[in-house]
Design goal:
Layout (H helix, E strand, L loop, with lengths): L4 H21 L3 E10 L3 E11 L10 E6 L2 H9 L4 E4 L9 H11 L4 H23 L8 E5 L6 H4 L3 H13 L4 H28 L5 H4 L1 H20 L4 E8 L5 H16 L10 E6 L2 E3 L14 E3 L13 E5 L12
Parallel strand pairs: 2-10, 3-4, 4-5, 5-6, 6-7, 7-10
Antiparallel strand pairs: 1-2, 1-3, 8-9
């Protein structure tokens, strides 16, 4: 049977809408969490199951969080009924030219003052990024977001030594110019700092070492940007509650937690003593199961035994600990 022109047009619109909805939810993962309080340990949220995207239903058992990697996914998850979102922005957001330039300026700074200057220039850019991430939400939807702060491997952010030496060579030709002599000295200091970073990274620290692992001020700047974005949106009528979810870093987790709490107190004021959590620590844990795990990923029956990791941490220092099963799939090309 042939379709009339109006019917065909309506059919085409439906196909486009379905295709668009499919694309917006394809990367969303639904995480089921089991919450418990462990004596002498603290509040533990343990991932028990991963699911592909399904619209939220009140009949779902347990706590379900939608993990989103783009503003499109944030909007789709909220519209599907999810009020708890795990926001995991890709580090590709930091690869824009101006951001790369400022991050390199921070990493190659010769003094604490120069490093702080670069971080202060990054702050408004990161605030705008977080604000854009959350502004897609409906103003009257009560949303609780658990946010992994933007981070990136240091190795990917550093310039190459060859490129820096090329710039030094160009400046060297005009060294007689007094103005360029200052630039020559600055480039030489950056070259020395870059050599230090390269040697440090190749001495066993690996190419997966993140900015937050080596530059404590990075966490401070990111937390300030996030809470500033939350405050701006709250002033516009948004009902958004944000909790920072930090990766566990041996030896530095406590300092990172302190940075987040201080940023919340300075920006949110009395609201920083709110009833919902300010900061949690995310740890990948090992699971020992005496029964096979089902295809859905749920621990089999009562045979599954959860093993707490041995770490240098007083768990009561944080609002909660989020135990990830690991092996997650992320799309590094998602963009907020």
């Amino acid at each position: 049977m042939k379709l009339s022109s109006n019917q065909a047009e309506q059919w085409d619109k439906t196909v486009v809408q379905r295709h668009g909805h499919s694309n917006s939810t394809a990367g969303i993962r639904i995480i089921e969490l089991h919450q418990q309080h462990i004596h002498h340990v603290g509040t533990l949220w343990r991932e028990t199951e991963y699911k592909n995207f399904v619209p939220y239903s009140p009949q779902l058992d347990g706590l379900h969080v939608a993990q989103c990697g783009s503003s499109t996914e944030v909007q789709a998850a909220a519209e599907a009924g999810y009020h708890k979102l795990l926001l995991a922005p890709s580090h590709s957001l930091l690869m824009k030219s101006e951001r790369v330039r400022l991050i390199r300026e921070m990493l190659l700074a010769g003094t604490a003052g120069e490093r702080d200057s670069a971080l202060q220039k990054l702050l408004p850019l990161m605030t705008a990024e977080y604000e854009h991430m959350l502004a897609v939400l409906h103003r009257h939807a009560a949303i609780h977001g658990y946010v992994r702060l933007l981070d990136a491997p240091i190795m990917q952010m550093l310039p190459s030594i060859a490129d820096l030496e090329l710039r030094m060579g160009v400046v060297q030709r005009f060294a007689a110019d007094s103005d360029l002599s200052v630039e020559r000295h600055r480039l030489h200091q950056q070259w020395l700092k870059l050599k230090q970073w390269k040697q440090w990274l190749h001495s066993g620290n690996g190419d997966k070492c993140m900015l937050s692992s080596a530059v404590v001020e990075w966490i401070d700047m990111q937390a300030e940007a996030l809470f500033r974005a939350e405050q701006r949106l709250a002033n516009q009528g948004y009902d958004i509650q944000l909790t920072v979810l930090l990766p566990y870093e041996a030896g530095s987790w406590k300092q990172h937690v302190g940075c987040v709490r201080l940023a919340a107190e300075q920006i949110l004021g009395v609201h920083a003593t709110r009833s919902y959590p300010i900061v949690g620590i995310r740890i990948e844990h090992a699971v020992r199961a005496r029964e096979d795990m089902s295809q859905s990923g749920r621990l089999g029956g009562l045979g599954g035994q959860f093993v707490l990791p041995e770490i240098d941490m007083d768990w009561e220092e944080v609002d909660f600990v989020w135990m990830s099963r690991g092996g997650e799939q992320t799309n590094e090309y998602d963009h907020f």
